Automatic annotation (TrEMBL):
Residues 1-25 form the signal peptide. It comes from Nitrobacter hamburgensis (strain DSM 10229 / NCIMB 13809 / X14). InterPro entries: Lysozyme-like_dom_sf, MltB-like, MltB_2, SLT_2. It comes from the Bacteria. Residues 32-239 form the Transglycosylase SLT domain. One of its GO terms (biological process) is peptidoglycan catabolic process. Keywords: Signal. This is Lytic murein transglycosylase.
Length: 272
C-alpha cells in the first residue's frame, strides 16, 4: 500500500527515537555522492560493517521517479470510504482471506493468545497490503529509494533514519541484499514494514534466528500483531471507528478511510 505522503505506515512516526538520530549530521541536497559518503560514515559510526555499507550503497544513484511519485501521493485517500473499500475488498479477496484464516488457523490462534490481535484483523491487513503475500510487494531497490528520499530536504532526518535501519536489516542477516526491494517509501515485505518498524517490531516467530518479513508467514503475522499491540491494541476490544483499537491502528496507517477498510474487511472475514 503506497500512501506515505499522507500517512507513513507501520510506525515511521515513532522512528524518531530509533538509532539515536545519528544520521542528522549528513546534509541533504547538494552533491549526491557527497551525501552518500556522509551517510556511510554515519552508518559505520553506528556499527554497520564496511562490507554491508559498500555493498548496499556502492553505485547507488538518485531516482527521480521516486521523487515524482512522492509529490503525487498527497491525494491517495481523497476517495470516500465507500469508494475506496469497493475497490479493495471484493468477493475474490474475501474468499482468499477466509481460505487464509483456515490454512493458518493454528498459527493465528497462537498469535492472538500472545499479542491479543484477532486473526481477522491480521488477515485483513495482510490481504490489503500484498494480497496475502501473493501480490506486489514492490520492486524498487530499497537503498536507492531511501537514499533518494533522505537526500531530499523535505523529510531528510526521517529517511536518513530509515536508511540506517535498512542497513541494520542486512547487517543482522534478516534479509539478503537482493531481497531488499520494496515500494516507493522503502516499505518491505508482505505487510509493508518500513525499515525502522522492521527493526523495532519484527518478531522471529518461526524460530530460525532471523526476522524475515518477505518469506516467513509466521514472522509476517506475528510482527504485524506486535506492532499493533505495542501501539495500544487491547485484546477483545472493538476495532471500529471511535474505538481505542481503531486509534491503535493509526500507527499502521493514519488514514481513517484505510483503517475503516481494514475493519470492514475483518468484518467480512468474520462473516458479519
Amino acid at each position: 500500500m503506497l500512501r506515505y505522503g499522507l500517512a507513513l505506515t507501520v510506525g515511521v512516526w515513532l522512528a524518531g527515537g530509533l538509532l539515536g538520530g545519528a544520521a542528522q549530521a549528513a546534509q541533504c541536497g547538494g552533491d549526491f555522492n557527497g551525501f552518500l559518503s556522509a551517510m556511510s560514515r554515519e552508518a559505520a559510526a553506528d556499527g554497520i560493517s564496511q562490507g554491508v555499507i559498500s555493498q548496499a550503497l556502492g553505485g547507488v544513484q538518485q531516482d527521480q521517479a521516486v521523487l515524482n511519485f512522492d509529490r503525487r501521493q498527497r491525494g491517495t485517500f481523497r476517495k470516500s470510504f465507500e469508494q475506496y473499500a469497493a475497490t479493495r475488498v471484493g468477493a475474490g479477496r474475501i474468499k482468499g482471506g477466509k481460505a487464509m484464516l483456515m490454512r493458518h488457523a493454528s498459527l493465528l490462534s497462537r498469535i492472538e493468545k500472545q499479542f491479543g490481535v484477532p486473526p481477522e484483523i491480521l488477515v485483513a491487513i495482510w490481504g490489503l497490503e500484498s494480497d496475502f503475500g501473493r501480490g506486489d510487494m514492490g520492486k524498487l531497490p530499497v537503498f536507492r529509494v531511501l537514499a533518494t528520499m533522505a537526500h531530499d530536504c523535505r523529510r531528510t532526518e526521517l529517511f536518513q533514519r530509515e536508511l540506517l535501519a535498512a542497513l541494520k536489516i542486512v547487517q543482522r542477516g534478516d534479509l539478503r541484499l537482493n531481497d531488499m526491494v520494496g515500494a516507493y517509501a522503502g516499505e518491505i515485505g508482505q505487510t509493508q514494514f518500513l525499515p525502522s518498524s522492521y527493526i523495532k517490531y519484527g518478531v522471529d516467530y518461526d524460530g530460525n534466528g532471523h526476522v524475515d518479513l518477505r518469506h516467513s508467514v509466521p514472522d509476517v503475522l506475528a510482527s504485524t500483531a506486535n506492532l499493533l499491540r505495542a501501539n495500544g491494541w487491547k485484546a477483545g476490544g472493538d476495532y471500529h471507528q471511535g474505538s481505542a483499537n481503531f486509534e491503535a491502528m493509526r500507527e499502521w496507517n493514519r488514514s481513517e478511510v484505510y483503517r475503516r477498510t481494514i475493519g470492514y474487511f475483518a468484518d467480512k472475514l468474520a462473516g458479519q
